[in-house]
């Protein structure tokens, strides 16, 4: 019974240390990839390589005001400390042109090794119909063309709130962290 109590205490001490180390981690928007609007790859749209089928999909989506957006958003978590950090969940809110459009939770556990960076993927699916219904196709085209070849867009914003499990209780950061793409990185 004594060994069991020691194990619990050791695990709790490790959890607390992981929380302290997670607070030192830096969160950055790495990139956005696999972006599609109404099932059309954004790269095709920005490079002017639309097929007749792509045009039909976009027109139909715009007319029905159902413009599905799907993309992967990758968040880098850098641990500058000499101790391991852990994260058991990452709540996120995605904004497009300053308007909150989607939210979710990645509830996978991540260990962020000392002096290392871990990439956390977020799958985003939302409807852009309301955002672009008033401004029309030109605004939708402007959004699609805002993506750089590195996978960033000035029109996409992300806020995250990491959590850690301590003694069986999920403990989130007190506030969301606004992420921005670091310049000068590939």
Structure, described:
By secondary structure, the chain is of the alpha+beta class. The chain is built from five helices and eleven strands. It has helices at residues 2-24, 42-46, 52-64, 129-132, 137-145; strands at residues 26-37, 40-41, 68-79, 85-87, 89-96, 99-106, 110-112, 116-127, 156-166, 169-172, 177-179. Strands 5, 6, 9, 10 and 11 form a five-stranded antiparallel β-sheet that branches. A four-stranded antiparallel β-sheet has the order 2-1-3-8. It has a two-stranded antiparallel ribbon with strand order 4-7. The longest helix has 23 residues, at 2-24. The radius of gyration is 20 Å and the shape is elongated. The model has no long low-confidence stretch (mean pLDDT 81).
Secondary structure layout plus pairing:
Blueprint: H1 2-24, E1 26-37, E2 40-41, H2 42-46, H3 52-64, E3 68-79, E4 85-87, E5 89-96, E6 99-106, E7 110-112, E8 116-127, H4 129-132, H5 137-145, E9 156-166, E10 169-172, E11 177-179
Antiparallel strand pairs: 1-2, 1-3, 3-8, 4-7, 5-6, 5-9, 9-10, 9-11
